[in-house]
Give the backbone structure.
Amino acid sequence: MANTVVVGTQWGDEGKAKVIDYLTNHADVVVRFQGGANAGHTVVVNGIKFIFHMVPSGIMTPSKACVVGNGVVFDAEQFLLEVDELRATGVSVENRLFVSDLAHLVLPYHKLEDAAAESTKGQGKIGTTGRGIGPAYADKAARTGIRAGELADWDLFSKKFNSAFERKQKLISAFYDTAFELSADAVLEQYRALREKLLPFITDTGSYLFDAVRRKKRILFEGAQGTFLDIDHGTYPFVTSSNTVAGAACTGSGIGPGLIDHVIGIVKAYTTRVGNGPFPTELTDAIGERLRTVGGEFGATTGRPRRCGWFDSVMVRKAVQLNGLTRFALTKIDVLNSLDEIKICTRYELSGKKIEQFPTSLKLLEKMRPVYETMPGWKTDLSGCTKLSDFPSEAITYIERLRKHCYNVPILIVSTGPDRNQTITVEPLDS
Ligand code: GDP
Ligand code: IMO
Ligand code: MG
């Protein structure tokens, strides 16, 4: 596979990590380019489950390189936890895991600020993952952030840290009703110890990636979150604090758009959302509960139950536009196995008017009534299917209808279970 960006087309948790892990065999380098430890990326290899928050999901394939790009907000503590877990499982990360020196650090005061900001929002609470993502990106944009590469010069790092800490302490104590229970000295001491372990990973990853491209290595860009959590194009303010769309793969890795060949959108066969915000096709009935139970729809980062609903083609059509999708990877179709009938939202309706486009206004989105096409379920276990032609005709029809409502984007992969081997490739991957 040539250089390929993989992004979520909905509200996250589409199964990006499963597909990334599968595709890593056809790539040389996997790079995370945005988000931080808010991501919960699940990979299942031979029945053993790994959840990554910071380390790219390609790490389970030995000999492939993994990069945490400059667009990520880097949680050093979480990263080292995952590195330790990988080492304990016998997965070597030596000389194949790299972190951008330009990635901004998520520091303990960012997590405190995240919790403090949420606690004051009442009804408007976003329902963040509490991983300090918003405050870390805010500091980056305000030019008061500290980057991973700055750990190399301890004196300078300490100075910057102390000044940032003092500012945060004043801001948080003055504005929020939150005790600022952090000691600058204790955090610095903690980071002095972490630093020794971190420095070997930190490098100029933009140059590393460009060199790899020049040597004809294939890069896989691993998106986090989903299109509708994008800070610009998502359901603002119920979004995350980074651009999650495919364009961010370039700014977040240091590789220009001319070097990207494909953009794969991960499409879950139904829709889920964690946290607050509008969700037109949400099911608050027994079917929603069934999707949650059968699909194991509980947040990989926070354990919160995910809200579940029917597939929304209005959203995915918008995702095709925003990401320039060239292929779909359809996941979790098996979760629908036992349903009598299945619905696809084809458009919305508002006061008797047909709405085909995802509205940019949150107020309008909240009022949208989904219009459904209903089709019979297949009531068959798909897990034994190794090719699409093994699928019952009702499942093929579902896939074809879904595609038809989403500009007929070709499907590259259909995933029928969480394990790496529960994957059907519809087209040869080396094309
Ligand atoms: P990500 O954030 O997009 O990487 O997705 P998550 O890992 O948060 O959530 C996807 C969940 O669905 C994980 O528990 C995966 O193991 C699981 N999963 C992925 N693909 C499939 C599939 O095709 N079928 C089923 N049943 N589970 C899947
Ligand atoms: P992956 O990569 C699903 C949601 C949170 C909240 C909003 C803002 O696993 O798909 P944040 O902590 O980012 O400030 O929270 O975004 N959110 C996710 N939902 N999957 C994710 O990541 C998410 N990362 C953040 O629930 O609604
Ligand atoms: Mg997830």
Observations:
- The radius of gyration is 22 Å.
- The domain at 4-95+204-425 is CATH 3.90.170.10 (Adenylosuccinate Synthetase; Chain A, domain 3).
- DSSP finds twelve helices and 20 strands in the chain.
- Residues 12-13, 40-41, 300 surround magnesium ion (ligand 3) (CB under 6 Å).
